[in-house]
Structure formats: C-alpha cells, structure tokens
Amino acid sequence: MWSLLGLLTILQNVLPTQLLSLLHSLWQSLQDSLTPYSYFDVPEFLGSAAVEPNALYRHVQLYLQRSLLVASSPPPPRLTLSLPRSASVSGTSSSPTAPVPHVSLSPNHSVADTFEGHRAVWTHHADTLQDSLEERRSFSLRLPKRHAATVLPAYLAHLAAAADHLERSSRARRLHTNAASPTRAWASVPFCHPTTFDTLALDPALKARLLSDLAAFAGGAEFYRRTGRPWKRGYLLHGPPGSGKSSLIAAMANHLRYDVFDLELTRVATNADLRALLIQTTNRSIIVIEDIDCSLHLTGERVIVFTTNHVDGIDPALLRPGRMDVHVRLDACGPHAVRELADRYVGVGAGHEMLDAAEDAIVRGGAEMTPAEVGEVLLRNRDEPEAAVTELAAELKARRRDTDDDDALRQWELSDGSPTKKGRKGLGWEGKVRILGRLRSLTKSDSGRR
Q: Among 74, 100, 209, 374, which has the highest number of CB atoms less than 10 A from its own CB?
C-alpha cells in the first residue's frame, strides 16, 4: 500500500499536468460507468454569480423539512433544530399554539425517500468559501441509474406539488431585510406582527375596498395568466408619520399570509444591487419600499407596497396604474377611528360625553391626531378609562382650528361624574391643556418614520 502511494506521489511530480488531468477524467468516467446510481445536484442559487435563487432548492428544503425528516425510517443520524427567540416568547410548551422547532438536515448527512417503489437519497452539502464566511449550500439526489430517466420528472413534480401545499398551509412567515452581503442579500426573522384588519382603526369603506381588492388579487392567478399581465399589485400608501402605514402593511401580510421583504434603499448602492435584491424575493410576498422613485419589473404573485410621507415629490409617471395601482391616503383619525381605538384600548364605547366632545373637535373644529398619537394618549391612561378619554378630548380641543367656544369639557368638569368633582387629585383641565400644549411642542418631530 505504501509503495503504491509513493508511486502515485512520484507520478504526480513527474507527469505533465495535462496528462494527469486526462488520467483523472478517464478514472472518473470509469467510476461513472460502473456505479449503479445517477446523481443530480440542486444548488441554492443559479449561475456562477449566485444571485438568482433556485426555486427547486426551496421545494426540496420544504419537502424534506415537513414531509420526510421527522417521519423517515430509519431517521437521519443528525438533524439541526432551531427555534428563533421571537418565536419562543409567542407561546409556551403547554399552550396549543406553542412554537414548533424548525427541523433541517445537517450538512453532509443524508435521508432516504421512496417514490413509486424506487429509493431516492437526498444529501445536504454546505461548503464554506475560501477567505469568506459565506456558505454555498446545495442538495444532491441519488436515483437508480436504470430508472432515473423515467422516475425523475414524476418525482420532481410530486415534490414541487407537496412543497407548494406545505408552503401555502404553513403558518410560519418571515420578515426579510436587505443585508450588506454580496452572496446573501436578504436576512430574515419570523414575522410576528399582531395587527390585523379586525384590529386596524381604518375607515370602514376604505377597509372594505382594500379587502375586496386583495381578495381579487390573491385569487386572480387564472385572470393574470389569461390576460398576460404580470401577477403583481402595487399599492401607494401616503400620509404623515404615525398615520398607520406600517400597521396597514402588517395587516395586509397577515390577511394574505405572505412574507414581507422590507427594502431599505439607503443600503442599495447601484441599480445592479437593486435588481439583485428584487430577483431574490419570493412569490407570495409583500415588498415594502419607502420613498420610492424607481420602476420595478416583477411577476409572480407579489404585492408591492410603496410608502411615502410626501406624495407630491414622486414623479407622476411612477403613479400610473401598472406601477402603483391603488393609492391609499392615510391621514388623521376620523370619528369612527377615534371610537374604535377608545373601545379597543380602554373599553369606552360610543355615547360617552367625552368621546362626543372629541368627535365634535374633529368634525366641527378641524382638530387632527394620527392613530399613533391617539393610541399613545389612551395607552398611558389604559388603567383609567375616564382619564384617558378626557385627556384625549382635551388634546383634540387644543388642536381645534375654529374659534367657537367648546363648552363640553367645562360642563364635564362641573358635572357629578367628572374626576375633578369626585376629588381626583391633579390639575384643573385648563392647566392640563396648557401642559399638554407644552409637551406637544417639546415632543414634535419631523422624523420620517412611517
């Protein structure tokens, strides 16, 4: 044995490189002709640039994770279990909605599958690139050589159908943000936002219109295919900071059960970088772009949400249908939104005198507060419902634009039900209004938060 190894070492040093390559190719061909198996590689990304995701890799990943790894017999010798921290706090082990760990095949390990009486073996590969912490991941499939040509197409169709069903029925969705990495453009965490259309304080007519439009889009696969239109829908959300743009996006994602790709344009240096990011987004996703001024060419069941605080600054050519199909103006709270927020936050329903005063300040006085501002007032008084709605009414009174005297607050202060009449400690309501005005001037910000 040692003499053979020594001879091989000598030959490597003596023989020309071209001859060694030829001998290696001949040896590889001999091995391939003698092996009873055919091998198929499924890389995570396509091409040498590793930019465009391989949809088949995602299908294999889902299929193995949900259908094969836990139920296979015998089980794989090594599995990787993971549970994000954000998921671990959303449930308990005794709860029926306790989070389930993510199961994946460990690198360089294999798992067997059976399809129509034929044995298929999947192996997971993860190779670290030189001078980099990036990994190139792939799966390899081994099938009997004499049946591979007939089995492979049917097996891949079965795998894709199973993966699509699993992806649609899965409750796990993710929030993706663009990361500063040349080969892995997106980083993701579980999407656990609680806002839904049921909890969103939105004008009922606007809410119904949005729900109808989203339903038509999600169920429109055949229509988009028949008409040749790209299966995408663009929404422009515009309004001042705190008007609820982020909450509406979360409600849309929860309603459609789509992943969210939050594209931070300040991290994008060139148009080529932007194209690479968009290529790596997946179907059934919402792509969120703030302060957009570019054109996107995407297809494949995607909702694209553009947000801006200043719609007047956008090129009118970008506002046309096909780019931004639905324009949604999110503004200050109307009476309906104030009632809904008060009921949800502190349990005070319609008909309360202070809510009537607050609504009067909005309707007759032109007072304006965003949903975020109303929510903050109610949140800090959530243990005292009467104080919450009274402070809200006082704040809206301070923001009135008309000059009419509003006696509702003064009448409330002198009534038997008022906190001051009951001996509640604190300043009078005129003093509170003055303090609220000072606080508002100190906390006003021109930040660009959504």
A: 374
